[in-house]
Amino acid sequence: xxxxxxxxxxxxxxxxxxxxxxxxxxxxxxxxxxxxxxxxxxxxxxxxxxxxxxxxxxxxxxxxxxxxxxxxxxxxxxxxxxxxxxxxxxxxxxxxxxxxxxxxxxxxxxxxxxxxxxxxxxxxxxxxxxxxxxxxx
Length: 137
Hints:
2 helices; single chain; rod-shaped; mainly alpha
């Protein structure tokens, strides 16, 4: 289960990195737009090529982000299933331990009952012996 948590955290870290790359790309685009607007004669042609590359890179990052979302969803479902399995195991283990405690208590009570019954029989025998010896005397 810990391994699955680590995997999910790693995937979420990768997702955050993709989001960061997209944000940095947008910042670069804005900076390049500003530069191109300050010097339209030279910046116009360079900006067009740069913008095309940014658009392609953004699409690639968005595709990767979309795929990562599916992988993360699958990892979350896998972790949730593992958690449910763990809870089932814990419930079965708890029930088994409870049954063992009940059985142990039942056995201890049976021993105590036997000891009490033996003591009761012994007292009855002693009382009968005492009564018989008084009758003889």
